[in-house]
Amino acid sequence: MAVKEVKKYPDPFLRKRSEEVSENDDGIKALIADMFETMDEEDGVGLAAPQIGISKRIIVISVDEKGFDRLALINPVIEYFSDDTGTMEEGCLSVPGINADVTRPTKVVVRGTTRNGRMVEISASGLLGRALQHEIDHLNGTLFIDRLNERERKRVENELEELERQYTAIMK
Ligand SMILES: [Zn+2]
Fold first, then answer.
1. Distance 118 CA to ligand 1 centre (A)
2. Residue 5 annotated in active site
């Protein structure tokens, strides 16, 4: 197991659509262990494989709800979004130092495979529903900052520009 480096906005890798995981993909358990370790090290509540540079449809989540304190899902798909929406503050290990209000459906139903190969369907609201949507967004190259309303977007504009400057400086 190892803590991996988390890719930061505006790294273009975060914008790629991640690949489906095939059934006989060796190394998935080791990858999931690395993802949990990285998430814990960074004090996150969730992490998607592309955030550590792996283009695979895998997410891990740790929220304080029974049975979901160590959830890993392979090839997760959102099967249902509620019409009801709610607004909560979000942050992201790939967008450090920025928190902003995001409006999303309050409830989702997600289907996926656990690390033991079991197909599960999870009906989730609250923090779990929120975390599932945020992490699955990562698999499609979407970041929470893409979902801000105009007011929130303006509010964090300078901080985003600062991250862009830091990224450019590292690349030079
Ligand atoms: Zn994130």
1. 25
2. no
- 71 vs 35, 47, 138, 146, CA distance in Å? 11, 11, 16, 25
- pLDDT-above-90 percentage for the chain: 87
List the domain range (segments joined by +) for residue 142.
12-171
Burial (CB count within 10 angstroms: exposed 0-12, middle 13-18, buried 19+), residue 107? middle
Evaluate whether residue 5 is within a structural domain.
Answer: no
Q: What angle do CA 29, 130, 9 make, to 5 degrees?
A: 70
Question: CATH number for the domain including 42?
Answer: 3.90.45.10
Gap from CA of 7 to ligand 1 centroid (Å): 10
Q: CA geometry: angle at 7 spanning 106 and 73, to 5°? A: 45
At 23, is the pLDDT very low, low, confident or very high (cuts 50, 70, 90)?
confident
Q: What is the pLDDT of residue 124?
A: 95
The active-site residue, picked from 121, 135, 150, 157, is 135
Helical ranges in the chain per DSSP H: 28-41, 126-139, 150-171
Kindly report the pTM of this predicted structure: 0.96
Confidence of residue 80 (pLDDT cuts 50, 70, 90): very high
